[in-house]
Records
---
Amino acid sequence: MSDTDSGARGLSVGWIGTGRMGAAMAARLARADVRLTAWNRTRAKAEPLAEHGCAIADAISELRGLDVVFTMVSTPADLEQVLLGEGGLLTDAGHVPDVVVDCSTVSTESSETVREACAERGVAFLAAPVSGNGKVVRAGELSLVVSGPEETYQRVAPLLRHIGKSVTYVGDGDVARLVKICHNLLLGVVTQSMAEITVLAQKGGVSRAAFLDFLNNSVMGSVFTRYKSPAFVNLDYTPTFTPTLLQKDFDLGLAAARQLDVPMPVAAATAQLVQASVSSGRVDEDFAILLDLQAANSALELKPENTAVDDGLGAADEVS
């Protein structure tokens, strides 16, 4: 047994939030034989985890006596509710977990509020936002960035390494939140640039599939450009990350840039295009609709190319 396995299996672990991302992340822990108990507001969304040996809690209070509890929720309000609201994880001061690890994407300010609440109750807190989507998690390609007390990080690191392929500790406090916001600014900028060059190539007579095949196999290709290519080629905008969520992150990122006196001209221009995607009303689709907007502004009519495109995440298809 590796040090990672023994360290993880020696901890009792809880999980709050089993949406698309949370369920996939929790499943990786359960399949690694971690003693896991999961809770979700809608119990039915947590129940499939039982197939992997996970216990399903009826109330958050069942998680209070565990060593480590992960949270993966949608908004800062949700995070404060599950921790500090009625029946929340931290509302019984005499009965709390040792460590809370939050993997949600929230602002630095929200993270600081939760960290202070944890400290008041003697609970260690790690901010551990992630890069990826549900399919990335299932393929074992998730990346995590973590901040908080280093001693706590070292204790929890074996669990984090079961969840993702890459775990980066960046320091104390809530700096991991800034790292994640910076990451998502680049996510938007790269996607907009990818839309622009793809439209340029197509308008010059090159199919999107051919252009992106060349790009992905060149030095300019990346894991991200490859797994976004099927959406660009076949116009499948099943959401992995919506324009509204991306807009929120651009707002947070540009606010941080103002606070730190960092000019961000490219990010600021992209923010306006992300705003246009939200204003189009297509807020329930993937943010890859930036391609559609670029094509419309270029007088180019897009049609699905109905071409099989490898997204580079085939390992996810082998995991139930």
---
Amino acid sequence: MPGHPLWTPLILLAAMLLLSALSAAARNQEITLQLALELSAEGNTQAAALELRRLSLMAAEPEQQAGYAWAAAHEYGRADSWETADNLLNRAEQHAPQLEMPVLLLRAESAAAQRNLAEADFYFQIIRDNPRTDADLRRYAARRGAVMLTRMGDTTAAEQALATVADEDNGLAALEHYRQGRDKKPMLGGLLGIIPGLGYAYAGEYANALRSAILNGLFIFGMVHTAQHDQWGAFAAISFFEVTWYSGSIYGGLDATNRFNRRRQQSCLDGIMGQAAYSPDFKQLPLISLQFEF
């Protein structure tokens, strides 16, 4: 019976055991989170993600489960394990729909890392156009979306994306400078490489151009000299190496042209992004707090 004298100590003992178990569980979660933070700071992102994933399974409330799942997805993304990150984002989205914007941000980064540029821009556009989006997140999404569009060759749409937020003069200037320039033609670079060094010079790699011209010139001189003195063994050896260097001049002109185009585009992308970056404040977990730099 509840009023029996034996029940009181039993109830007290059960309460003490329950409080002790809850305290131990809370302490275990605290230690696990501290370990995850240290692993993340050390760059051991896979291990940090595993600890955060463990915390997601240990959490009692759906919002807490979602917060830890998102953080684990972020760490898996840093480790370039985007497929696993996407699965955890599904869990975060299911448990806490209010995390829509942080989830979309990581989905966009995942698509970008996997070269799905149109999909990445789609996510960045949703973030940018949502009236509830934080101003810093909107600004970051505008820049990242512009980068995706520029990589796809649509600089007009990239300009429109940047125009949706204020104070993006540097990015707009980088786009305008990029549009005013011209890509080199790889096929022309290869054809010019028929004359040793000229393909490199066309791509603006003058040191490589000079090196190619000198080396091919030396080998050609050696071929002529050995042929004039009937040194056919040496002629054959020098000719073999000259074929290698000469074909390298042709391929090098083509490759140098592609490098020029990549450098030109990357310079534009760097101008668009500037110093923009974000990082989650894991000390706020299981709440998701993003810190931006521009």
---
Amino acid sequence: MTKTKTYDKKIIFPLGPHPLPPHPCGIHLTATDQNTAHNVPHRVLQDEHLQPVGFTTTMAQWIVNHHVSPEAIERDRIRYEALTRQGLVDPVQRFPINSNTQKGNWAEVLLAEYVSASCTVKVPVYRLRYNPNVDQSMKGDDVLAFDLDSNPVRVLVGEAKFRSTPSKAVVEELIDALVRSHSGNIPASLQFVADRLFESGNEELGAKVMSCNVLFAQGRLQLDYVGLLVSTRNVHRHIERNAKLNIHRLAVISLGLSDPEGIVAASYIRAGEYI
């Protein structure tokens, strides 16, 4: 259950409640909603109930889903069996080996799954499936989620970062990335999402995503911004001191882990066992 501190009524928290069990985030993480010293809505996630094996198993499943489609997994299986029979090594790499890319992707995947569970939004395209170089970070919005049935239509723009050691600089970097997205008006990755939907034959959903351009021009599109910073257990203190409110409808989430690098490494090891 989310613990809540008193809010300034002028501040809008663009997140729904913390997910309840049986959702993995409800099982493994606790949440407290508060405002930073500069009045930014801040959800503090902590790992006091985290069960490492269960949590990394869930993260591994999410990592696989975000990086590889079921169809690609089946093609990989057929290719791997054929190469193995010939005594050859499969050269295909589905997950990043670079540790920094692993950490960034891990945070991105968690943010996408978290907002999907917390809000009435859906992530229609897993963008990491389309990364031409898995060891490099992708450009564009980390998370783009939609509630296309709400009035007004709602688009949630997410930015996720992982740091082994939290700092003022990374908090400012997180907020600045969301401010730049806000300054660009329509989300930079909206066309990317629409194109992938059209390519997959999902014409109706692609058209709805494309219509967000018109809704924005008409002033009928609600844009929300959420940033996630994953680090050690004291990460929330850095956000509390340094996150400043620059745009409307912005919130930040901190996730403090006792062993953040170990959790990420274990998640990818387990993900590799699934494909």
